[in-house]
Every structure is written in structure tokens, then in C-alpha cells.
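Q: My labmate handed me this sequence with no annotations at all. I'd like to see what the chain might look like in three dimensions before we decide whether it's worth expressing. Could you predict it?
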Amino acid sequence: MTHYTIKDPLVRTNDISSTLETFSDSDKMTFYLLILTYLLSTRVTVVNTARDLGVILDSQLSLDAHVASLCRSSYYQLKQLRPVARSLSVEAAKTLAQASLSSGLDYHNAILHDVPEKLMRRLQSVQNTAAVAPRQLHWLPVRRRVDFNIAVMVFQCLTGHAPAYLADDCQLTADASARRLCSADTAKCVVRRMYR
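A: Here is what I predict for the chain of 196 residues:
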């Protein structure tokens, strides 16, 4: 039996997979059990929020912390833009506001699809603060921006312009069923069941 030791808790996955290719199946199982034992014996600290790819998730998945952080950073950017915007032309100020705020509001906004109205109002207030008249900037309301981005993503999936991992989960009802359904004439997507 071969014995393995983990010297560094920050083990690189590529190193493990390339090393495991030379082992037999029983040795791989032993190694996996060793890693599992090591992970189970470590002390894991439970936190209220975690940041993943710029999105702050809390234990309830309510996105309160994410919206609060997004509003805080957006208001900070607006505060930094005010002195500069006074010395710019109206068109240049619009472009600067568009570039700085819309990227923050649009980044991963598909997760905001079904959030409560109070969180949407907070995000809408950020957008309204950016411009005294949001219609002058031709911005959609935040809730409509979220819906639009999701619609664009679905369109790209259906037309083959999205990555395969997204396009595989997005099919029309006419394409997904072996038998003809009444809903086959409508352009509706199949909603797959998620089991827990």
C-alpha cells in the first residue's frame, strides 16, 4: 500500500490530476480518501457572506449584501465623477456616466431577476442619481435591464452564439419533445426540473 501525505494545504488541481494518471485505481481511491480525511479534519469557519466572481452571496441567498455593496460602490463612483463632469461637455459627461455605472449595474444582473421590489428600488435610485433625467440618457429601468439581458442571453443560446454549457440547457419546446405538443407552435423554452 502506498502512503501519501499532503504537505501544502493549497494543493494545485493540475498537479494532482497529472500525478494521479500514473496511479492505479486503488491508489487513486486511497489518495481521494486521504484528501477527504484531510478536508474533514480541518476547521472550517462559517461566514455570513461570500464573494464569488464579484457577486456577494449570503446564507439566505437574498442578495441584500450584493445590492448594498453595488449601491455603495456606485454612489462612490458618482461622487468621484461630479467634480470631473463639471468640466466636461454634456455628451462627454453622459458617456462617462454610462461607462462607469452601466457596467456595474449590468455585471451579473441576471441573478437579480426575481429579487424583491425594495432591492430593485435601491438599484433604481442609483441609476436615477446618475442622471437627473434618466430618459435623457436613454436607460431602461433596472428591472427592464435585467429582463433584457436575460432575453439576449436566451436569444444567443437559441441561435447558437452562446457557449455550449449555456446552449445545452436552453431548448424550445418544439425541439425538446419526441412527440408533438400543443405548445410546439409557440416560441417557449423548456424549463427543466431541478431536483434537490
